Amino acid sequence: LGEKRLKKRNPGIVTLITDFGDRGEYSGAVKGAILKVNPHCQVVDITHQIEPQNILQASFVLKHSYPYYPPGAIHLVVVDPGVGTKRKAVVVEKEGFLFVGPDNGVFSCLFSRGERISGNEITQVKFFLPLVSDTFHGRDIFAPVAGHLSLGLDPKRLGPSIKNLVFVDWPAPVMSKKRLKARILWADSFGNLMTNIPREPYGRIWEGRRIQIKGKGWCIHRIHRTYGQSGPGRPIALFGSGGLLEISVNQGNALNTLGLKPGDPVTIVWQ
Amino acid sequence: LGEKRLKKRNPGIVTLITDFGDRGEYSGAVKGAILKVNPHCQVVDITHQIEPQNILQASFVLKHSYPYYPPGAIHLVVVDPGVGTKRKAVVVEKEGFLFVGPDNGVFSCLFSRGERISGNEITQVKFFLPLVSDTFHGRDIFAPVAGHLSLGLDPKRLGPSIKNLVFVDWPAPVMSKKRLKARILWADSFGNLMTNIPREPYGRIWEGRRIQIKGKGWCIHRIHRTYGQSGPGRPIALFGSGGLLEISVNQGNALNTLGLKPGDPVTIVWQ
Amino acid sequence: LGEKRLKKRNPGIVTLITDFGDRGEYSGAVKGAILKVNPHCQVVDITHQIEPQNILQASFVLKHSYPYYPPGAIHLVVVDPGVGTKRKAVVVEKEGFLFVGPDNGVFSCLFSRGERISGNEITQVKFFLPLVSDTFHGRDIFAPVAGHLSLGLDPKRLGPSIKNLVFVDWPAPVMSKKRLKARILWADSFGNLMTNIPREPYGRIWEGRRIQIKGKGWCIHRIHRTYGQSGPGRPIALFGSGGLLEISVNQGNALNTLGLKPGDPVTIVWQ
């Protein structure tokens, strides 16, 4: 994208996905460092509650929020256990959005493994804070860079172009003949348990078939469309808004009720 | 309100009250879907920490925050256990504000039971996201509608007018002769315990009288004006900023100290 | 600063540091009361998760976030256990920023004890909400005042000038000959444990010397530069982005792993 074109379409929006938590000064310092470069941009918190160092969760949250923003929005992802080591800082373009963050796999859910990407390493120190710490590149590098991008800076001016990103694989479920071994990835704020089972292709495979979704001590016999379709307190399975099969309890909390936790196995068998 | 008048007075502010929690992509996707329609509006988080499915708590928080905003602000409330079932989506007007959300009682604290309201059902799909999911109308319906309203859209264009809302009753305390049976509703972040006792009429009834506010193992003998009026660590009762009688511990945490939890009974006797 | 000059440089940004938590209506009401005065200012959450009534923590978070904002930003700090008592409300200027809050020590980390400051008491009720409660000056006084300041109001118009602030001392570590007795202040969201040991002068004193950093059951033998420099799960000490010595576990959680909690002692000996 040319700088002029970027400037034109740029809505001046920078979103944040981090594992900083909502306590302390980390997210506030990052927001300041963006606004210092562009006081007129709107900084939007997506979440600061990514599990510490959970790169794949950050990537998943990004995948399911970025497309809802106006084109030209800058998405900043800072889950960065390797800060201060030799991992790269990068900016990547996709569908008219710019993505800024460490090159450690946080963008894995946006691309397929080995896919050629359009991006740049971030090496031009003139766009950083004057003093760069060893432990907080979110504030010292990524934030001011995002601020400059929100003003229309051409990403090409940030550093050499790159064609690949570090990639972290999604923990795919294992299918044998009419049996799927899956697991719980994490719980949302309602206690809904996300599995690693995407709607594609499994939703199609299971359509119209008898099915059992099983964990220790519970079994669900069908896939519903929405939460209100079972009685209150009853376990239910459905493909959620993020496209993953989730185990829920209508008007309840599956995390607490079913005694399941992230990492636990879930088995699906069908006929 | 005519569309022109709305446009004129519209400060381009959309507030959010949800039970999405601060983890995950839910609130970020909603904010994106608002900003995609109106990239220049300011999206303001009131809270995403309503207890899951606690419609009355959402309504209470709304009642005690909306009037502080500039007229024309759009208040979006998404506590929506019935998403994807036949509950209506609505927009309501009051005091120059617009309120958007599911018709399940989230607006109960704004009106009296049976009060005629000025509102519209939201049925016009052209204001929704192109693809509407079964589980996330916050993102797919309410957010883009709020975005359009923040641009000055006349609510009448969203669907047929309505005159009533689903109403959820406040759990009123029970008064017998000089005795009130009440209960704890919830705790705030300081551990202050909110009762279901409104200042009106009880503050007036009790003025100048000897009073006992009692739970298991504690008794308070007067109603103070502010927190600092008792010694640190001492239990205290006062009518808080939201107009409810609350049980507090000065510089302490009543929730932890008094062993009370939401739902527990509180008795008041007076002479 | 003259009113004209303030107006000119003013980026219309108000930041918030409070102990309100992210539940309930408190922060939302404050944001509304700012926006009602200046619907075009950008309200930025730094944190609402200061430990209840922890004035020094609020001050520390402020110190490590405010300088990253564009000059002219208004920083509002509401940790206010003395609300409704005779503590003053104040506005202070430093480095082109304005700081608004109760005069109870929340600005201690910005100044040295006894330092002459440039500030004003806030007494002019015409800048308050029409009705001021006894328990919520964040909403009724500080917020509308911050809104007016973001429009360029000269702080001098808020009330009489003041030259001193209430000051809360930092809990300094105790040094005897080549031995420092320190303690854990708090943990960040990663479980990194902040000590009360500033980089100055200790970083310099210890440079090139053999050192032991000790608690119950663990001992660290050097100070690293960044987190990734030890093996995963290993305890590590480093001066963090806020300038304090912190005890961390690489890709882990020191709070949970080391059994340390705020208030616990840490001893450093060197040769």
**Global geometry of chain A:** elongated
- How far is it from the N-terminal to the C-terminal residue of chain A, by CA? 51 Å
Query: Could you state the oligomeric state of the chains shown?
Result: homotrimer
Order of helices and strands of chain A: HEHEHEEEEHEEEEHEEEEEHE
Helix content of chain A: 10-25%
* Beta-strand percentage range of chain A: 25-35%
Biggest interface, CB < 8 A: A-B, 41 and 37 residues
User: Uncertain spans of chain A, ≥5 residues at pLDDT below 50?
Assistant: none
Q: What is the mean pLDDT of chain A?
A: 92
By DSSP, the count of extended strands of chain A is 16
Content-based structural category of chain A: alpha+beta
- Our Rg estimate of chain A from Cα atoms comes to 21 Å
* DSSP summary: helix tally of chain A: 6
- Which sheet architecture does the biggest sheet of chain A show? 9 strands, mixed
Task: Please outline the helices and strands.
Three copies of one chain form a homotrimer.
Chain A: H1 3-9, E1 13-18, H2 26-37, E2 42-47, H3 55-63, E3 74-78, E4 89-94, E5 97-102, E6 118-121, H4 137-150, E7 161-162, E8 174-176, E9 179-187, E10 193-198, H5 199-206, E11 211-215, E12 218-220, E13 223-224, E14 235-239, E15 244-249, H6 254-257, E16 265-270
Parallel strand pairs in A: 1-2, 1-3, 3-5, 13-14
Antiparallel strand pairs in A: 4-5, 4-6, 6-7, 8-9, 9-10, 9-16, 10-15, 11-12, 11-16, 14-15
Helix pairs in contact in A: 2-4
What are the defining features of this structure?
elongated, 7-stranded mixed β-sheet, 6 helices, 16 strands, alpha+beta, homotrimer, 271 residues
